[in-house]
Amino acid sequence: MKTAAHDIRYMTRALKLAARGRGRTSPNPMVGAVVVSGGRIVGEGFHRKAGASHAEVIALQAAGPRARDGTLYVTLEPCSHTRKRTPPCVPAIMAAGLRRVVVAMRDPNPRVNGEGLRRLKRAGLSVSVGCLERQAEQLNDSYIHRMRTGRPLVTLKMAMTLDGKTATAAGESKWITGPEARRHAHHLRSQVDAIMVGVRTVLADDPQLTVRLGRPIARQPLRIIMDSGLRTPLTAKVLSHRLRQGTIIAVTHRVPQARLTRLKRRGISVLTVPSERGRVSLRACLQQLARMGINQLLIEGGSELAASALQSGVVDRLRLYIAPRLLGGNDAKGLIGGSCPPELFRALSVSRLSAKKIGSDLMLEGTL
Predict the structure, then answer these.
(1) Which of these, 194, 212, 272, 275, is most buried using a 10 Å CB contact count?
(2) Which of 6, 4, 72, 11 has its CA nearest to residue 43?
């Protein structure tokens, strides 16, 4: 059955509202809602941040008694469970006196996944599902990915020269790309829940791993350090008094207990993860991060972590910033470490590749 033009119009508005919560709602999805009565919008809202009121409740409160006999457009199936910080939305919808609810997509969260729709139908409301479903899925792709796979959506982001070098033989890498590309990368950071680097990057560059856009942001992403042997120095910037609360060091069971104790006494979070070939298992680490509510993870390097992520098959998206420079030299640092596969057919294929000019640099994006 064809979707009515007015349903598309109002759901488009709900999706635009939902997108206003980008980078602030995790572990929750972005959700927008619109209440329509008598052919006009009488209430609307979106989920602003985790722990705040849900979009449906905000829209219904704005509509008040005008919601009676109206239609609610919502980008995701309304929740019906109570295992969260805010009340479920289904009872509020049922109490509003609506006649119809139009939902873009079902919620893949097993605590919801159809139950909200069933309760609304049992209450006598007309319920339609699937209006602009593809757009709704694109909006919350990282949330959906976590619910369906049990791990965050992973983007591997790196910068290199035209000949694939990320640093000189001496380790100098600041800055390969120009200021526009670096600002673009910070904007990407602002949209993810966590940034991951290997301990070698911490030792070589001592990064802050923060979003720096020259303006206040809703929240800083978590910083995850993959450090099997717990070599991160206590003087590292990510362990400074200002940043340590948002930093997690992932280690194996083999690290010295005395050093673990010292870190924990300083208020530094340590995540103990099963090992794989003597190192932190990346897959096991991602599963633990997913249970912590991390929807979207950005891996920024270095080359060995990039190799491990690619070999483990956990990279979903690739973003490369390419500077118009040629560094040369067999001793310069390459983009991806590890060992080269013996046959060319074993090379990983990147699909849906696109290119965009960012200042003087080129940005390539693709999926794996």
Answers:
(1) 194
(2) 72
Residues of the chain with pLDDT under 70: 1-2, 81-86
User: Is 123 in contact with 98 (CB distance < 8 Å)?
Assistant: no
Q: How far apart are CA 45 and CA 23, in angstroms?
A: 17
Which of 56, 77, 115, 300 is an active site residue? 56
pLDDT digits (tens, 9 = 90+) for 144-156: 999 999 999 999 9
Half-sphere exposure of 95 (CA within 13 A, CB side): 10
56 is catalytic: yes
Cβ(31)–Cβ(58) under 8 Å? no
Of 45, 335, 328, 324, residue with least CA distance to 162: 324
Q: What is the pLDDT of residue 11?
A: 96
Q: At what angle do helices 282-291 and 303-312 cross, to 10 degrees?
A: 80
Instruction: Give dist(CA 302, CA 37) in Å, integer.
Output: 55
Q: Give the tens place of pLDDT for each residue, 122-135.
A: 999 999 999 999 99
**234-292, pLDDT tens digit by residue?**
899 999 988 888 999 999 988 888 888 888 888 889 999 998 888 899 999 999 999 99
What does the mean pLDDT of the chain come to?
A: 91
Three-state helix/strand/coil letters over the chain: CCCCHHHHHHHHHHHHHHHCCCCCCCCCCCCEEEEEECCEEEEEEECCCCCCCCHHHHHHHHHHHHHCCCEEEECCCCCCCCCCCCCCCHHHHHHCCCCEEEECCCCCCCCCCCHHHHHHHHCCCEEEECCCHHHHHHHCHHHHHHHHHCCCEEEEEEEEECCCEEECCCCCCCCCCCHHHHHHHHHHHHCCCEEEEEHHHHHHHCCCCCCCCCCCCCCCCEEEEECCCCCCCCCCHHHCCCCHHHEEEEECCCCCHHHHHHHHHCCCEEEECCEECCEECHHHHHHHHHHCCCCEEEEEECHHHHHHHHHHCCCCEEEEEEECCCCCCCCCEECCCCCCCCCHHHCCCCEEEEEEEECCEEEEEEEC
